[in-house]
Design brief:
Two copies of one chain form a homodimer.
Chain A (H helix, E strand, L loop, with lengths): L1 E9 L4 H15 L5 E8 L6 E8 L2 H7 L3 H10 L3 E14 L6
Antiparallel strand pairs in A: 1-3, 1-4, 2-3
Helix pairs in contact in A: 1-3
Chain lengths: 101, 101
């Protein structure tokens, strides 16, 4: 099982639209095969900073997310709203030890 | 709902013992009232670097974790195994919108 943290900085004027588009992406992503978590977090000290916490049962499923229609729609929708490039960081999951989360 | 990321760097000679102690902490923490997630992650590029991803339904429950016997036992057990001080970072959870994770 692997996790990707995606650090996201949004231009202030697009924050509301970003949240709306990301909610749609969240709702579709949690339905994907192999998806375990798709948490959307917001920095309490910086309302323009978000983190996506995405957990999948395998690297293949994590990579597959980037080929889904909802991801591609989200990516194109938010492209001009980024204050700076997104940063993704991968981790392995030690615990929970299985998919019964 | 809130999340705490805890960044942890472990002295190399204590990594196996740290994983064992943290597994015990994980297994008890996920039973706590208000706990939603207690994921233990490992950096694939640095086997001595771990992240705990801890989600609770409220700040009170998140703070309550630090008063539990299993947390206190873990804290004391790993105290001398840290390569440097732990760093905790808090985030709010936007989505999922409720506790049905």
């Amino acid at each position: 099982m692997i996790v990707t943290f995606v650090n996201i900085w949004v231009k202030e004027e697009y924050i509301d639209a970003f949240i709306k588009a990301s909610r749609e992406n969240h709702l579709e992503s949690i339905k994907e095969s192999g998806n375990l978590r798709f948490d959307i977090l917001r920095d309490p000290g910086d309302p323009s900073k978000f983190v996506f916490y995405e957990a999948y049962t395998s690297e293949e499923y994590a990579d597959g997310h980037k080929k889904t229609p909802h991801y591609l729609k989200w990516r194109d929708t938010v492209a001009d709203w980024m204050a700076r490039p997104r940063e993704g960081v991968r981790y392995n999951i030690l615990y929970p030890e299985n998919e019964l989360l």
